[in-house]
Amino acid sequence: MTHASILSPSRFRSPIRGVWFTSVLGAVLLAALPIVTVTGFVSWVAYGPQFGQAMPGDVGWLRIPAFEWPTDPTWFYRLTQGVHVGLGLVIVPIVLAKLWSVVPKLFETPPVRSVAHALERLSLLALVGGILFEIITGILNIQYDYIFGFSFYTAHYWGAWVFLGGFVSHVTLKLPTMVTALRTRPFLELMRIGVRDTVPDADDESGLASTDPAPATVSRRGALALVGGSALFVTVLTVGQTTGGFLRSAAILLPRGRSYGDGPNDFQVNRTAKAAGITGDQTGDGWTLTVLGGTADIVLTRTQLERMNMHTVDLPISCVEGWSTVQTWSGVRLRDLATLAGIDYVDTGEVRSLEVSGSFNRVTFGRSQMMHPDSLLALRVNGVDLSLDHGYPARIMIPAIPGVHATKWVRSIEFAGPQS
Ligand SMILES: Nc1nc2c(c(=O)[nH]1)N[C@H]1C(S)=C(S)[C@@H](COP(=O)(O)O)O[C@H]1N2
Ligand SMILES: [Mo]
Predict the structure, then answer these.
(1) 263-416, superfamily in CATH?
(2) 373-409 pLDDT, tens per residue?
(3) Is residue 276 within 6 Å of ligand 1 at its C-beta?
(4) CATH 3.90.420.10 location in the chain
(5) Ion ligand 2 residues within 5 Å by Cβ
(6) Terminal CA-CA length for the chain
């Protein structure tokens, strides 16, 4: 027996296989995948390509038209990225079911029959390979230790384009088939049929139906309920990272959901002070903030900052990993710091952390992000000093930015005017 025969169509004998079942799953994915794709690409823009911060940086002509990332509504990145990761996880069972429903076709023999057929197969490879690659790299990135030797961002970005190429060609080729299949057999009618009355689709010419169907062990209704139930289960395991509350302990797919003590600082920590190599000496009484870009640099102690005008606002930390949390931050407005340094027109601001290594120890923001009345150098959260893990003595909090730019353990801020 050769390997191909293990996957030959005759071995897949469920009578529910066929163009109708595949089309139902296809229709759900057709609605969901564009949302996952667009929210993913939008995240690339949120990192600030105009400041050389989007990853990967050099993407040639596959550059997404950059727009200035908005600061309002404050929950914008929370929504786009929460949807990207959340929906991306929720559709995993649906993707797997869809693959199950077409698996004999993926391994059909002969593998290539004509030029047109070869192109169709190539687009399938891009589609299936692309989506599995995106799911696997995405899931690995939200776990603590990303295990690949290559950059997640680069891999996930290029993988997305491969997937998109496969997706667009596949939809172009198969949409008419899907629409016909769904029109021919009304969904609700089929949902009334139990296991005993489940029979193969009549004259299915798609090549998806079993050539030698066995008696049904599950109805189409039962199979779709299983897939839908799995998607729901993933939802329950996922939403707690964003909603908080009791569901947070159920958010096991996103491991930053555990507890960090009981106090006002008990919310997700991305990278602890210890992991970032931040020591007590650096953040003790000797810590100062340097503000650069004015006529003279100014150096402020934490006590001096505390005496400035305090502003309090609810802002989210929205991580690229999909989790988010809204907390109440208090601190000094960034624009007040600019004024103090004698700068009247700010074009960009560059923030640096005490953290020496890592790609997130320095970040540049645009004018609207620096000047927003709710953009803070935060000193306190929920009425108490920031904990060391949340960035004590001071961190950046700006509306609608990706969490990765909410720099902790800030050491300096440099304002720059136009073309300086
Ligand atoms: N200096 C520094 N700041 C940082 C990070 C970091 O690794 N180093 N991680 C960022 C990321 S990815 C996120 S999501 C937020 C998380 O903030 P939190 O740990 O206070 O929840 O901090 C950001 N600020
Ligand atoms: Mo993050």
Answers:
(1) Oxidoreductase, molybdopterin-binding domain (3.90.420.10)
(2) 999 999 999 999 999 999 999 999 999 999 999 999 9
(3) yes
(4) 263-416
(5) 270, 319, 403-404
(6) 72
